[in-house]
Amino acid sequence: xxxTIPALGSMYIESCRKHGVAPSSGFLSALFKAEVKKSCxxxxxxEILLDNVKDIDFHxxxxxxxxxxxxxxxxxxVLNESSCALTGEYALLLMRSIGQKLRVVxxxxxxxxxxxxxxxxxxxxxxxxxNLRSSHFRKLxxxxxxxxxxxxxxxxxxxxxxxxxxxxxCTPNLMCLSMCETRIANLWTTIAALSKLRSLVELRFQNxxxxxxVGSSGSSSGDDQTGPSQPRSASxxxxxxxxxxxxxxxxxxxxxxxxTFLPEAFSMNHNFQSSNEESSDDSEVDFSIHLEDSYMDxxxxxxxxxxxxxxxxxxxxxxxxxxxxGDESCEGAFTRHVADGSFKYISQHASPxxxxxxxxxxxxxxxxQLRVLDNLPIRNIDREMANVTFLKHFEYLPYRRYRKExxxxxxxxxxxxxxxxxxxxxxxxxxxxxxKSQYFYTRSLCAAKMGSSPWPFLHSxxxxxxxxxxxxxxxxxxxxxxxxxxxxxxxxxxLDGEVVVVNHENxxxxxxxxxxxxxxxxxxxxxxxxxxxxxIAGSDNGSLKLYDIQHCASTCKHIHTGTGSVNFDEFDQLxxxxxxxxxxxxxxxxxxxxxxxxxxxxxxxxxxxxxxxQEHINVVKFSNHSPSIFATSSxxxxxxxxxxxxxxxxxxxxxxxxxxxxxxxxxxxxxxILASAVDNEVRQLLAADGRLHLNFQIPSTGSSQNYxxxxxxxxxxxxxxxxxxxxxxxxxxxxxxxxxxxxxLEGKASGSSMFVQSLRGDPFRAFNMSILAAYTRPSSRxxxxxxxxxxxxxxxxxxxxxxxxxxxxxxxx
Length: 813
Description:
Protein name: Transducin family protein / WD-40 repeat family protein
Helix content: 10-25%
Strand content: 25-35%
Region (Disordered): 217-236
Structural class: alpha+beta
Largest sheet: 9 strands, mixed
Radius of gyration: 33 Å
Distance between the termini: 77 Å
Strand order of the largest sheet: 1-2-3-4-6-8-9-15-16
Organism: Theobroma cacao
Number of helices: 12
Shape: elongated
Pfam families: DHU1_N (PF20919), WD40 (PF00400)
């Protein structure tokens, strides 16, 4: 037989007597309200408010909570409305002791600290609705048992930036998820995490509000102005069917037991008497509770409404939905046309992911079972248009692969084809025409690996002074370049004028060239191709030197003291250097309108070409195959192509951008030029005549200081682009412009973020790159981050903050 609610009250009083503590008037009142609901034939819900619970109450409450599963109580809601003196460990133990009758856990706008969130995530909870608004998660990782959870609210969790790879693997029944005003920004990792939620039907990263004709925001009904997840009172009426005698009996038992027990234990204070007396009067009992609209009855299987501010019925229409990005009349607003007219909506409490171009279409196309996104129902026409938009602007997998395939399957197909090819007669056609391409299986393997690795592997290059005999030495890289023929070598220059050649595979220093007081920040680096041990280094104070890393002083291993180096005439305020394809000449540009030409063999400066642009020339690049062709990019908004054979008096052609150009480079086959202008204006031009081949349409930030740099990866198949005001690197197809993936850079310390200072595609490894990233926090350092898009990462290796540098972000490539 189930334990009655009055019996639970008596058990609690007895437990308090045993532990020598005063009974909690709040808990006794909660039992009283639960009995009222039972007598009204309503769902018997016990509502426990943690606000007034203290550690001293723990043991008495725990004994009673463990009996709730055997009682008449049908469900338990644990709420918190203000500060709480109860420790996080005790709070979790109390909630877990309730078992499967735990329905709602509402800890909104409250935090027990990081340990509480970690223990909650790892140990799980058997509740159905979990409200953790304003929590301090940084990366969500719900690995504990949350088998009963169907609604999760993480609104206003301002530190939440991303998801762990398996963060939702233990929430198979999650139907509704809200993350308004978080810092979630990456479409790809977000979808990779959410795709494991097979039951997810409602998702929210922002709150769309319907506006009336005069432009004021509000709900369609006109009387609900609350934001997302704002609690509202939901009264539970007391009808005439209440058994008054039963209420009096329960209240009398509680009151008498409390008054009888307390004088024996200690002196009762006035506050406790007042609160107990108030709770004993039927007319003073507050039968209302503060619950989210999203809370469901335990008997209901429908997803919650989350206090929607729009009339969903007005949205169910067969009318077409215009492209949100095309019909925006203002930031965060759009108009939806329905049969009876047009409705204008504005966004509130949006997370950064909402500002990604084609965000809504990407979400709808990627989560087929989703029915409601950001309070707006998803119609059939919405889903059709989303699929079209997705195919137009995004690549699901590299090289236009449209379905995920395992590596084993691809290897088996390759073996079958090779055996078939070796046995077929000359008249037989190949088994797979697509397999004719020498790159077909290599590209298929890349697609398979990337499809199984939504979280790319990021690893900060760790180079210390141990190899130099100085453990405390640390480096502050400012520019770097891969070696053109040795896949393991990389050179980087530092803010202190050092040049360091490293084996980036084993992270060992191969050669170290100190500044010797002559170099400032190294902004220009370029390897010679025919003489792979030599490189040109230039610093912002104008110093230009050629080094041979094979000539190291014998007195100190790995340290180059100047032997074998060649000094060139200085070029003031230098920002870039580049060697031509025959290793005979190199060019230097800087914070001026001029470009200098140097002869490597003689060490002489041959000529200075003056007034090549109207403003300073940030980067100069020779073509990869023609020794006389080079391009310049300037902040005068022009990209110019030049030919040394014409003694550059006038350019071969000029191509203009709408903003200042930060960087330019040739594709590996010299067919294209990749031009990067301020604030994500990235375009691919035909190298032959400068005509526009492709505009990558990367969203701008509106910042005139957002210096963007782009480079090729995988030959000329893909481009990578990053900017100094953003902590993301975008990967786009160089033939179609479609976005393949975004790579988010995050510092390890809370609140720290990184920005892109330079980047290069690995010339030897497909879908590998390195990024020179710097922290925005003054106490942090810059570092080189290696990225492998084909290897999965659980973010176990993260960047570590260190010393800072504040270089000019507009200088160099």
